[in-house]
Design goal:
The chain is mostly beta strands. About 10% of the residues lie in helices and about 55% in strands. The protein starts with a helix and ends with a strand.
């Protein structure tokens, strides 16, 4: 237990502590007037049906009783938001901030101040199956966004989850559950368009045929993307050093993309098959791979998935059994040359008339299998245990470039050389490699008293490249009364180093280290959930974590930057939530998050992430068949890293407004959404140090923009 959380000095560390005290005081008042309920159905009739979550333990539990700090976002809420992409939804989660990386403007899901390049500390699941790539440990460099029409709900855990999910369930876990036939019930078609030459179209169909349940979803998206201007990019500094004039700034970010997302879900009795394709084409590279603008680059990716699940909750008298096999095929392809630095650039070895061009491509296959059993034959205990394995194969690495060593001569390429192919030579940027992982876990949910539940679990993982790791979890949940639940949570987590960190080679900037250890996390949390009525819910939590063995590229003393386990970070914080359904027509939600994360190697603020966030939303049915939804996302107090001498990043307040009109007799609905309604100059921080910054004025987000869509259900 970390004394910093529970010591008498806590009030000095956590602003907003008084809110929790008031929450407890409110509980004391209400409990004095509460009555005893012996029948659970009667209790539900008074307090309402509560959302459930499955990723906390692998079994379905209510949010208040689940041994985790978690959120669930339903399809109805996603629709009310007018969201077009999953990033539009995730900003509503307390303690989670969606930042941006210059490369492709990929989302960086920052939980509780934990931020790193490529965002590998967050595990994303689709229907409980990881979509992690071996190359950078992320979701795919050619991400291209993820549409939301086929999503049934999203489950989010803040905090570690390696005792259940293994590697990368570190800062948080995001599980996207796609729609089955029961979620669609018929056919829906829709389409829309809006700012930035954007258009969407989709088809959803779900139906039951006897014992068979079948659903099919297809979503298509095309956009030129926001054209926000980068005033000064990384090439400006190089021009100043070498006397060149190559920079393309000021210039627009490159955010075009064409997406197709197709999914099939077929089930019968205990068997289920799901398959899908996420195809990305014409994906622009954002602010550039090296923070130097490149308006012409385009990328593409195909992500194929297939999983077969056998799930029998009554396999025998006391046993439930689930078995699953899955396959993921993923690629990262350069369609048009990736120009690292523009024509006329000099990066230290002379002027490159065609620019510095490098086209790295990777292709991966992932195979997973696991068996899980749940035993209920021991009174007041539910045992969950399982074994599984993962085989990841980065089977093809390709690279063309106009710099480095010519494989045919073994000599450096002269300036102005054409692009050459170094695939299958010692001069490629990354060797082809594979990784095997086997795991076993056990978990016990023990209700040792009427109002007390203890969840204890541990998972063992064996990796072919770095060895063993063991990660336990422990949680105590106390149902203080019908309307108040308290939780004390402890967990450990790990993140396996990516292949870019262990195997990177022939890179003038950063070299891999095959002797890396996994990053580790240790976390303690205390949470309260108070629901005096079915229309009001209040929740709050305190957390403290220690993040060790952080992989950073540090100097080896010989002029090279080499991946090493040199970093350490500690963080603490507070998250508060409120949901008040004032009437059937008016619904309010709000959350507040505060965190402070310290880089222990320099004893300074870790930087790059918001210290405070406020999120407010209101949904109002002001007339029959008319609804309005509005939200405010207020991002505050983002400090730079210690050696970055620029001013702190400005706060921003981002307001969205969505208007919905239903036509029940025609089975039609129409919505119009404005995002960044007041045209805030919102920016996400760019990397920088004492020598300067690649993008001095940070990464601009989209200006005010609009989108309208029409859907028909039959």
């Amino acid at each position: 237990m970390k004394e910093i959380i529970f010591s008498p000095k806590t009030k000095h560390f956590f602003p907003g502590m008084r809110i929790l005290v008031l929450l407890l005081g409110a509980y004391g008042f209400s409990s004095a007037h509460s009555q005893d309920f012996d029948d659970e159905d009667e209790l539900l009739s008074v307090y309402g049906d509560e959302e459930t979550i499955s990723i906390a333990t692998g079994t379905k539990q209510t949010l208040s009783k689940a041994p985790a700090v978690a959120s669930v976002i339903s399809a109805e809420k996603i629709k009310a938001m007018g969201a077009q992409d999953i990033d539009d939804v995730l900003e509503s989660v307390p303690g989670l901030h969606v930042s941006r990386d210059p490369l492709n403007y990929n989302p960086v899901y920052t939980f509780r101040g934990i931020n790193a390049d490529y965002n590998p500390q967050v595990l994303m699941l689709v229907n409980g199956i990881p979509i992690t790539n071996l190359f950078h440990g992320d979701r795919n460099l050619i991400w291209g966004g993820m549409p939301v029409k086929s999503i049934a709900h999203i489950e989010v855990i803040r905090g570690p989850g390696s005792a259940v999910y293994g590697s990368d369930a570190f800062a948080g876990v995001i599980n996207i559950v796609t729609k089955a036939a029961k979620d669609i019930r018929g056919t829906e078609i829709g389409g829309g368009g809006g700012s930035f030459d954007t258009w969407n179209a989709w088809l959803l169909h779900g139906e039951e045929y006897g014992e068979w349940s079948v659903s099919f979803t297809a979503e298509f998206h095309k956009t030129n993307g926001p054209d926000q201007v980068i005033e000064s990019d990384a090439q400006v500094a190089l021009d100043q050093v070498f006397g060149t004039n190559a920079s393309l700034s000021p210039g627009s970010v490159n955010l075009s993309r064409e997406n197709a997302d197709i999914r099939v879900d077929v089930s019968r009795q205990h068997w289920r098959l799901r398959a899908g394709l996420q195809r990305r084409r014409d994906v622009g590279n954002g602010a550039g791979a090296t923070s130097a603008l490149d308006p012409n680059n385009r990328n593409e990716s195909d992500r194929w998935n297939l999983d077969i699940t056998y799930d029998n909750p009554q396999y025998s008298e006391h046993w439930a059994l689930t078995a699953q096999v899955s396959y993921l095929d993923t690629s990262q392809v350069i369609d048009k040359n990736l120009i690292l630095f523009p024509p006329g650039a000099n990066i230290g070895f002379g002027v490159m008339p065609d620019g510095v061009i490098g086209n790295p491509q990777v292709f991966e296959r992932h195979y997973r299998a696991n068996v899980v059993g749940i035993y209920n034959g021991w009174h007041n205990h539910q045992w969950r245990m399982g074994i599984g394995g993962h085989y990841g194969d980065l089977h093809t690495v390709e690279e063309t470039k106009n710099f480095g060593i010519d494989p045919s001569t073994g000599l450096p390429l002269p300036l102005g050389s054409p692009i050459i192919d170094v695939t299958d030579t010692p001069y490629v940027f990354l060797p082809e490699e594979e990784r095997e992982n086997y795991h076993a876990f056990v978990q016990d949910i023990w209700q040792f008293a009427n109002d007390w539940t203890l969840t204890a679990g541990v998972r063992y993982d064996r990796y072919s490249d770095f060895g063993d790791t063991v990660n336990p979890r422990l949680s105590l949940v106390w149902s203080v009364d019908h309307d108040l639940t308290a939780k004390l949570l402890y967990g450990q987590a790990f993140r396996a180093p990516s292949f870019a960190q262990t195997l990177n080679q022939n890179n003038p900037v950063a070299v891999g280290n095959p002797d890396l250890d996994p990053e580790t996390m240790e976390s303690t949390e205390f949470a309260l959930n108070y629901q005096p009525t079915g229309n009001l819910r209040l929740a709050g939590n305190l957390f403290y974590y220690e993040w060790d063995d952080i992989v950073q590229f540090d100097s080896d003393g010989m002029g090279n930057l080499v991946a090493q386990n040199t970093g350490s970070q500690k963080g603490k914080g507070l998250e508060l939530e409120a949901h008040w359904r004032i009437s059937p027509q008016l619904d309010l939600e709000a959350n507040y998050a505060w965190q402070r994360s310290m880089d222990e190697t320099i004893d300074k603020n870790a930087g790059m992430t918001p210290r405070q966030q406020i999120y407010l939303q209101v949904q109002w049915q002001f007339l029959d068949n008319w609804k309005i939804y509005s939200s405010l996302n207020w991002v505050m107090d983002r400090e730079r890293k210690q050696d970055d001498l620029r001013f702190p990043v400005d706060d921003y307040r981002w307001v969205n407004l969505s208007l919905h009109r239903d036509f029940p007799t025609a089975n039609l609905s129409l919505s119009v959404t404005a995002r960044n309604l007041f045209d805030s100059d919102a920016r996400e921080p760019s990397q920088g140090d004492s020598t300067g910054a690649g993008i001095i004025n940070d990464l601009p987000l989209a200006e005010r923009h609009y989108f309208a869509e029409l859907r028909y259900h039959f």
